[in-house]
Design a protein that fits this description.
The protein has 155 residues and is of the alpha/beta class. The protein folds into 2 domains: 60 residues, Roll (Ubiquitin-like (UB roll)); 83 residues, 2-Layer Sandwich (Translation Initiation Factor IF3), CATH 3.30.110.10. The protein is 37% helix and 32% strand. It is built from 4 helices and 8 strands; from the N terminus they run E-E-H-E-E-H-E-H-E-H-E-E. It has a 4-stranded mixed β-sheet. Strands 5-6-8-7 form a 4-stranded mixed β-sheet. A hairpin with a 2-residue loop joins strand 7 and strand 8.
């Protein structure tokens, strides 16, 4: 196996017993870094310190992740003008906060015959939020719901 010392310098290729003995003489452990390499690569290091640093790197990587939530706003085709403006402002706020927005127009009973009215509502919404969001999936009818997903624009 190929052996790397505690400073990161390659020592050479040794038998497993010799590498373990060398690590013990220096007061460290022998860690297998790349088992699939030919020959396998091992490093002489302190196992506790190695695991601590590995855990710290994973924690830092998690910290840099961003979680995108999907927030939903539900409308009806009979929703009044003021209420629509209020809901549209919510959608804009969601997009500015970095969340996706799912807007659903629900149809009950015979309202399903007037799907075009719902499409006009969604087109108006898309026009209002075009400066802070883009349409991720176009409006589509799923059962008695007309839905559209809007994603924020990353600057």
């Amino acid at each position: 196996m190929r052996v790397i010392d505690e400073t990161g310098k390659m020592i050479g290729v040794y038998l497993t017993q010799d590498a373990v003995r060398m690590a013990k003489e220096r007061g460290y452990d022998l860690l297998e870094v790349s088992p699939t390499a030919d020959p396998p690569v091992c490093k002489i290091a302190d196992y506790g310190k190695y695991m601590y640093e590995k855990k710290k790197k994973e924690h830092d990587a998690k910290k840099k992740q961003t979680v995108i939530n999907v927030k939903e706003v539900q409308l009806r085709p009979q929703t009044e003008e003021h209420d629509l403006d209020y809901k549209f402002k919510h959608v804009q706020r969601f997009l500015q906060e970095g969340d996706k927005a799912k807007v659903s127009v629900m149809f009950r009973g015979r309202e399903i015959a007037y799907v075009e009215h719902g499409r006009k509502l969604l087109d108006r919404l898309i026009e209002m939020v075009k400066d802070c969001g883009t349409v991720e999936s176009p409006p589509k009818l799923e059962g008695k719901r007309l839905t559209v997903v809007i994603a924020p624009i990353h600057k």
